[in-house]
Amino acid sequence: MPPPLSATATRRRARAAARAFVGGALAVCLFGVLCTPAGAATGVAMSVSFQPDRLGASSALTVALRFAGSAGATPAPLSGADVHLPRGLGIDLRAAAVCAAARVRAGRCPRASLVGRGHAQLEVLAGSQTIPEQAVLSAYRGPARGGRPTLEILGVGSTPLSERTLNIGVLRPDSAPFGSVLAIAVAPIPTVVYEPDGSFDSLTLTIGGRGSAARILVPAHCPAGGFPFALDAAFSDGTSTRAGAGARCP
Amino acid sequence: MRRLARALLAALCLTAAGAASAQAAETVQITQAGFSPSTLGAPTNAFGSATIGSTEGPVPAPIEHVNVYGPAGVTLNLEGTGTCAPATLERIGPTACPANSRAGFGGGEGIYMLGGELVKEKYTLDFFLSDNRPGHVALVVFLEGHSPVSVEVVFGGSVIRGPKPYGLGFSLNVPLIKVLPEASDASATSAFVTLGAHNVAYYRNVHGRRTLFHVKGIILPKSCPRGGWPVASQFKFQDGSTVMAKRSVPCPHH
């Protein structure tokens, strides 16, 4: 039998520095500041941009999210995300082919159904380690639900675990100051037995633009303070938070 | 300043379920064991959890040694894995080990006496391959606790072949550790372990190209005997007692 290699290790390893983020009771935080309402353990920062950024222009919309657990802890796994979009924003999926979820999972959707791309950084706390994983995101036009357009967002991670997860978002009207909301039910990202599901550390998704069958139209008018965007995020630990972002007027 | 509990690995009988006590004051209750996915001949994640107690008090004796036996027919395919040198793990910690040397994780709760009071402490386990050559497979384990006392211990193990009806398993020598000089030797009251996964993959260079390679790791037998796969674990405690636990893992449903 092999002898113990060390019974008295006393080394102290450098700990990951705590991630500072703005916390408090604010219901909405703007311009990419990480927001943690009272009671929430995971903070979220949101930023958005149009490319090109011109009133009324056909454009690509990029939404970027950044998550942080309290005191540098791993963020809780995301379970739902409602992305609130400004009034007047045009999301035209009519030119995109519809691809069923089963075909998305199998990686067999036609290019004509691709409406967006992105990437995500995930992590999981297993044993004493925080283990990262990169994922590639692809968004497809899905079959309508109750007459509402849907987006199917496929996440593909390769290493250390080869994973595919599909999240479906339904686009529906929203109340002012927003015009619509993309309500996404986020599927768990399993790891191994006894260890938590994967958590998003950051996520970026671009809809429209070159190579996309979707057409995004920047609103023709911009309200004072910019175009309002917001995210309502729900987590598997039962907490939730809202983050806001304003896209400045062109 | 920080030493570790010897018995913190008590329930490393990850594949065993159930327990039997042989004239020992210590008791082991396996609370869960299995394979995920449970598919004949397929790569899998082996997992298990247990609680450890004593008939003579709240603190079981520290564990000196653990043998875990899997079912006959289990194989290992470690192609695509890396290794972590024990000295590196001890000097720098788990972050110094290559990602493809990870073999599994675990944790549980330890217990010790300090100043006349019982102190409980959560701990984690990180398993790495220190040797991945067929016939020489060895493990190195990093045990860590944070509160109330920060403790870190590195110790080794090896892959073994159990007696019939068992097959491959592993053996760990758990060191005797005190978290503080005035504390009692630490014991474990619970433990869980999860080893391998069916979907592990790493990039590696093949003829100058970055290629994703899927590691098979732990592979279940191609058949399952009536009554399920037999598994067992054997714990030797510091007080000289030995507890042998035997159990079977149900065959996959077809």
Describe the protein in words.
Chain A has 250 residues and is an all-beta fold. Chain A is 2% helix and 49% strand. Chain A has one domain. Chain A has one helix at 101-105, and strands spanning 42-51, 58-69, 78-86, 90-92, 114-126, 129-145, 148-157, 163-173, 178-185, 199-208, 215-217, 227-235, 240-247. In chain A, strands 1, 2, 3, 4, 5, 6, 7, 8, 9, 10, 11, 12 and 13 form a 13-stranded antiparallel sheet that branches. Chain A is globular, with a radius of gyration of 20 Å. Chain B is 3% helix and 52% strand. The termini of chain B are far apart. Chains A and B meet through loops of A and strand 2, helix 1, strand 5, strand 6 and strand 7 of B.
**Number of E-state strands of chain B:** 15
Largest interface: A-B, 29 and 60 residues
Overall form of chain A: globular
Class per helix and strand makeup of chain B: mainly beta
Low-confidence stretches of chain A: 1-32
Describe how the helices and strands are arranged.
The complex is a heterodimer of chains A (250) and B (254).
Chain A: E1 42-51, E2 58-69, E3 78-86, E4 90-92, H1 101-105, E5 114-126, E6 129-145, E7 148-157, E8 163-173, E9 178-185, E10 199-208, E11 215-217, E12 227-235, E13 240-247
Antiparallel strand pairs in A: 1-2, 2-10, 2-11, 3-9, 3-12, 4-11, 5-6, 5-10, 6-7, 7-8, 8-9, 12-13
Chain B: E1 26-36, E2 45-54, E3 63-71, E4 75-77, H1 86-92, E5 102-114, E6 117-131, E7 138-145, E8 151-161, E9 166-173, E10 187-195, E11 200-206, E12 209-215, E13 217-219, E14 229-237, E15 242-249
